[in-house]
Structure formats: C-alpha cells, structure tokens
Design brief:
alpha+beta, Alpha-Beta Plaits, elongated
Length: about 240
Amino acid sequence: MRINKFIAQCGIASRRKAEDLILSGKIKVNGKVITDLSTDIKDTDIVSYDNKNIRMVSNYVYYKLNKPKGYITSTTDDKDRKTVMDLMRGVHFRVFPIGRLDYDTEGLILLTNDGDVANILTKPNSEVKKTYIVHIDNEINGDEIKQLSKGVDIGDYITKPCSVELIESSNNMSKLKLTITEGKNRQIRKMFSAIGKNVTFLRRIQIGEIKLGGLSRGEYAPLNQKEIKYLKSLKK
C-alpha cells in the first residue's frame, strides 16, 4: 500500500495532508525518516508519526463542529494559536479536520479518522457543494450578483459558476447565501473583493447533504446514520 494511503487509513490525515507530513520528514518507516511519496508499506513494516507507532483504523468515527472565529483548522499550530482540536477534547478517538475554514470564518467543519472520505471531500474535482452565509458592508446589485454567479478573477484563478441568493440588503449591509463547489484559500472573501465588496461575516452552513443544524459556536456532535451513509456513498 502506498505510504500516503496507509497514513490516511491510520486516521492521521487525508492523503493530501499525509503527503505534506511525509515531505516534511515527520514519518518514519522501520525507524528511518521517509520522504519518498512512492514508498510502499508492507504488512511487516512499522510506521511512526511523531515517534509514535501508527496502525490502520478499524472503527471510523465522524463528527461535525461549529467552528467559532479565532481557531485554526488544523491538528496543531506552530504559533501556539487555538485549533479546532481544542474544541474536541471530549472525543476519545484521534480525528482530524476535513478541509479548512479560515481563522476569521466560522461554521461547519467535519472531523473524522476516515482518510478515504477526507480525500474524496478535499479533492479539487470533488464537486461537493458548500453553502455559506455572507455579510458585506454595503449594498449589492443584480449585475454584481450575476458577475459572482458566472465566476470572477481572484488573482490567479477564475472561480467556477456558483449559486448566489440575496437574502436582504440595506445601505450599510447585505446578507447573501452562496454555494460553491470548490474551496480555494480565502476564496469567498477574494470573490467579493474582486467586485469591490468587503466581507464582514462568513459562516459555512452546509457541506453536501450535511447541515450545521442547531449547533452552538464551539459545539460538536457525532454525525447521524443518514449523514454517515451520505459520506460513505461518496466513496462509490
């Protein structure tokens, strides 16, 4: 089995994140640091991360979290900032966040030890819809909404067509619901900046068929069977 897949199935990280761990020298095989992404793992190999031996997970778990502002979507942070894992201390399984939300963005984050599901959800071509509530600090007109919907140039990338719904608008604030199928770094903030608007509030409320629901800020809950079935259906 390829080493990044093995790490993912041990519940450490998604395959893409596992590659980062390998390249940064954090993975050892039989006591030796491995940085070759093509390394295959045999049944007799001993693999370690942070000097602790890791094994493939047999019991997958899935959680959703309402991330508040001021938390990093990571398992650790070298600047000693708070991470989403600080909110998951009641969970007795090693889990990791799927994808990310920016430091200043709140809302729905999924966490799991299922590397295959994480890999599918974070693939650039996954096409899984993600829905956000967006506040901006002035009015927005129909032409600007149409421009966002068609796709805008955010510097090094033209965003894909998306769904934009105006909920309310006044002289000093507009509230919108926006659904995208991609997730570039700070994409939504850059999209609005491209049309001269400033985002003052951003919350993710849905990923695919999984909704934030009634979770308070900082609160988490295990996914129900219907939600888990949906995630597992993505593997097919």
